[in-house]
Amino acid sequence: MSRNTELDVEAAMLRREIDRHNALYYVQNRPIISDETYDGIVRRLEEIEREHPELVTMDSPTQKVGGEPLECFTTVKHSSPMLSLENTYNAAEVRAWSDRVRKALGQDPWYTVELKVDGVAASLRYLDGIFVQGLTRGDGEQGDDITENLRTVRGVPLKLTGDFPSVLEVRGEIYMTDEDFEKCNATRVALGDEPFANPRNAAAGSLKLLDPKVCASRKLRFMAHGVATDTKVTSYAKFAALVESWGIPTIPGRQIFPTIEEAVEYIEGEIASRTKMAFQTDGLVIKVDDLRARLKLGIRSKSPRWAIAYKFAAEQAVTKLLAITIQVGKSGKLTPVAELEPVQLAGTTVSRASLHNAEQIARLGVKVGDTVAIEKAAEIIPQVVSVVAHGDGGTYIFPFHCPSCGANVGRIPGTVDLFCVAGRQKCPAQLKEWIRWWAHRDAMDIEDLGPKVIEQLVDRGMVTSPASLYVLSATDLAQLDRMGKRSAEKIVKTIAATRTRPLRRLLAGLAIKHVGTSTSGDLEAAFGTLEALSVATVADFLKVPGVGEKMAFSLHDFFHDPDNQSLMLALNVAGVKPELPAKKPAGDGPLTGKTLVITGTLSRPRGDFEARIKDLGGKVSGSVSKNTSFVLAGEEAGSKLEKATALGIKVLDEAEFERMVA
To answer: Most buried residue, 75, 213, 246, 490, by most Cβ within 10 Å?
Structure first.
């Protein structure tokens, strides 16, 4: 036997061994060797294939590390519609659904109940046991071909085992475990990137990456929960057992019941205990078990009649309210914050939660010393939702004066929020928040000007407006705590580099009421200079696309306010002179007639992309609709990306966008 033949046999043996241990780990959840031993087997196979690339096979486990970056994703029609589930939130609605099922079938079916994994839906296609294609849900009729990324996902075997059909299409969820999510975010923070909001966003963002190697590093996983091809079985429970025998994981803890009442009893017990898994779940799914009965029940336009989701209510925690403090924002808005005894909620320790405004405190009747229930709005921001038990504290009196500067507090007619009337150049808290925003990546982008430095600069009276930043010297900064000479010089240099930022960035940094980063770009295009803006009338502002009456008056008031006029002069004297907007090319641009929506975290501030889109003839919208041409999506893209996918709108990442406009 030749050396190459020996290595070929050894590589085949190693692949079988790795596949066996993958099935034991991901499908049966009973590993029999240590991670170190497993890694040793993989390293030996990698060594053979690296030295003898002719021995690499398409289905080798080593191919899960990811191939070369893709040019773009193509859209492919599903073999059968990929549906969403109807949602319900109580047992009565589950029973009503069961009554409809019973009436349509003329008999009581058996039901399966399984966890609803909070992940990203995907469809896997196998030909003769080899994984050949993977698609996103898309709009249900067609989805993006993410085959190369799915090849890197744990739980997606590249080759099936056992007695499998020649054509197989299974559907399920791509997800990330809580542990891997925390590691992923720790890595992102260490690199200076924004952390993902939750595991689902991390999975969705990873699958949209054009570089499979990066996707592979995120350690995504897959669980099957459905079938799109005929497997010659009549029961979903039997189908799940078959799928596992082929090496594909399915949802753990599945139960089957002969009546809906037994299923409901089980569901209510599960909801009461909210069993903690190693991954995120957001409810339970109840399905008719008989696959033939499913065909008879059929589907609606977007959901099957044979299944329904029982969604978990938002997870809550109970703790004690220790104090109520007031945060003052850059606009002067006073926001009450509940200071809490630390408590675990949805995987994180929470010690502060929003109380929104004075009216919310009154509505809840909350007092210091109360025991309160908190939950995370949109799974991100903790908020107090109710009082569980009253303590011995008195009624909370919202302050009549700003806790930062002592100025009076007032309410804008028609609103519920209270504001400090001093103005942000006179209120330290407002000024600190304003300077933080001025330095933000979506405004003037002063990378080295951190919150602790800003805190000291304002407290010591060294900065009284954004203009003050541009007259600071390294000697001034060296006076601050924990500030070395080299760091001081670096900050001064970084600040100086922003003197010629585009006008749109400066306008964003000014934080004019009702004016966002997109409108700042429109104003730059319409007026070109600060001087032109300072003499514009309300009528002039109303001529700008997207500027309404409320915004026009806000702009006019801002540029005619004496304090702001003094600020403009001070910025000019300090050498802050925005570069003139680039002239648009003659004729139509590559984005003429196109409407784009931007979502997620991109490599550069969003305002840069908005300005470029407009320079190239396109329009930027804040919401996705059927009139949207493209969605430019960065990491942590959320509901806008989901809506675009549902509507079948083309989604671009940065690389695709750059190629399109080149």
So the answer is: 246
